Amino acid sequence: MMQTPLIAALQRIVGEAHVLLGDATAQYVTDWRQRTHGQALCVVRPGSTEEVSQVVKVCAQAGVSIVPQGGNTGLVEGSIPQDTGQQVLLSLRRMQAVRAIDAHNMTITVDAGVVLQSLQKQVDEAGFLFPLSLGAEGSCTIGGNLATNAGGTQVVRYGNTRDLCLGLEVVTADGQVWEGLQGLRKDNTGYDLRNLFIGSEGTLGIITAATMRMYPKPAAQLTAWTAVPTLEAASALLALAHQHLASALTGFEVMNQQALALVDSHYPHLRVPMWQDSPFCVLLEASDSESESHARTLFERLLEEAMEQEMVADAIIAENLKQAHDLWHIRESITLAQAAEGVNVKHDISLPVSRIPAFVEETDEALRALVPGIRLVNFGHLGDGNLHYNTQAPEGGDAAAFVAQFEGAIGDVVYQAVLRHGGSISAEHGIGTLKRDKLPHYKSPVALQLMHRIKAALDPDNLLNPGRVL
């Protein structure tokens, strides 16, 4: 590839080894689901905030747009370049410093490229807990988690990534650096800039560092796996769990029979319990500040009452950490099992918990009428109303042909039902490119107008991740 003045300038900023060209960009320009392939002018890998700032400035001067990227684990095609070959992909993976741990303030300040699993480990070694947990934690970065406001399995207790963040450092569209890493829990000095950048998917600024909350480690953590007859029973179990466990309830995941059947088919060594005889299974987790015996007593009382009220048909409580890990591994393997089965149609939606049973019944029926034999793979974070409502081709069918023929129609059925039941078409994955054109149909016109005004104010030349979200 012929060297341009822009590429030469980028090489001077970050070093020639960290400006990737041609075939060296391949791993950065394809999305995690292998659905979309882009093409970058180059991939730039800065090692510091100052380098990010300088990269943004020279790209702005050249009028070249930038696509920020963390671990490239997103599911809405929001962190890969377009196919023009004219965008700079800015990878933050080299920025992996832990800048500070403040035990008294219970915060940790890290670069945006720190991998989530590494952050969890650093906090654990400091004697605390960092509760954000999701399937891609071995490769996703905290910057990406913040840019998409990722959720995960413990939102019911600790909230989304937004709720775990106390400060940000951001490079703006003109290359300035906003330093907001103080880690304050109270700061009423004007507009909430931190929360404006969180969830903006790199369209308003580039997150380069963050100050995150740490929590005391629980004295005990217990996991239970239950078989439930209906989603109504699962919702009732959730309400009962809140009564018995209160803030100790940290996870509440629901999985339908089809989701677990795929795990059993592709990963039989995981030995999925109870799935063959139950339409749904629920995975509960409780974190106790007193002791394991106290936690077990609360869990046993909860499950006894749930069985008496016929919410639960059967249940097991993990006897040790390995058993608990094995149960969670089953839940986390659903997405991998779907991928192994073939390309599929995914929906990341949220609804009031009370509306989920009616939504699923109505939408299941509509989709079975649309595509006879369609496999409905429903699972997710029932505790916070987030359902991964996915569909797979009929057994033995051509998966690629199924997606090509029916993805649009399936999406219309699902999203219209979401709208009727007062939900959102994106719970934790974001909008990216995949849902961008759907957003105007399901978002308030006033809200969209305000979003466009914010984008125009913070990125007037539309250089940061253009064509995403809006």
From TrEMBL:
Stored InterPro entries: FAD-bd_oxidored_4_C, FAD-bd_PCMH, FAD-bd_PCMH-like_sf, FAD-bd_PCMH_sub1, FAD-bd_PCMH_sub2, FAD-linked_Oxase-like_C, FAD-oxidored/transferase_4, Oxid_FAD_bind_N
Keyword Ubl conjugation tagged: no
Domain of life according to the entry: Bacteria
Gene Ontology terms: biological process: respiratory electron transport chain
Keywords: FAD, Flavoprotein
A Pfam family reported for this protein in Swiss-Prot or TrEMBL: FAD_binding_4
Listed SUPFAM superfamilies: FAD-binding/transporter-associated domain-like, FAD-linked oxidases, C-terminal domain
Cofactor(s) it depends on: FAD
Ranges where the FAD-binding PCMH-type domain occurs: 36-217
Database matches in Gene3D superfamilies: 3.30.465.10, 3.30.70.2190, 3.30.70.2740, Uridine Diphospho-n-acetylenolpyruvylglucosamine Reductase, domain 2, Vanillyl-alcohol Oxidase, Chain A, domain 4
GO molecular-function terms, A-Z: catalytic activity; FAD binding
PANTHER family: BLL6224 PROTEIN (PTHR43716:SF2), D-2-HYDROXYGLUTARATE DEHYDROGENASE, MITOCHONDRIAL (PTHR43716)
Family: Belongs to the FAD-binding oxidoreductase/transferase type 4 family.
Name of the protein in question: FAD-binding oxidoreductase
High-level lineage: Bacteria, Pseudomonadati, Pseudomonadota, Betaproteobacteria, Burkholderiales
